Amino acid sequence: MTEYGYFLAAEEHGPADLVEQARMAEQAGFSHLWISDHYHPGTPPRARAPSSGR
């Protein structure tokens, strides 16, 4: 059986959005979930990371 996963981009979305996306992915039937492990923000304009508070 084919299984599908969903990738959460921590550089693009804040913690609350990531949790909501994970919930929706589970409800949609995705069997795997991945999240990037960047703990420090990148460079503007996409300088978001889970620990950046932005």
Q: Could you name the key traits of this structure?
A:
alpha+beta; two-stranded parallel sheet
Describe the SSE topology.
Blueprint: E1 5-8, H1 15-27, E2 32-35
Describe the overall structure.
By secondary structure, the chain is an alpha+beta fold. It has a domain at 6-35. Helices cover 24% and strands 15% of the residues. The protein has 1 helix and 2 strands, in the order E-H-E. The protein has one helix at residues 15-27; strands at 5-8, 32-35. It has a two-stranded parallel ribbon. Helix 1 (15-27) links the parallel strand 1 and strand 2. The longest helix is centred in the middle third of the chain and has 13 residues, at 15-27. It is elongated, with a radius of gyration of 12 Å. The mean pLDDT is 79. Residues 8-42 form the Luciferase-like domain. Residues 35-54 are annotated as: Disordered. This is Luciferase-like domain-containing protein. InterPro entries: Luciferase-like_dom, Luciferase-like_sf. GO terms for molecular function: oxidoreductase activity, acting on paired donors, with incorporation or reduction of molecular oxygen.
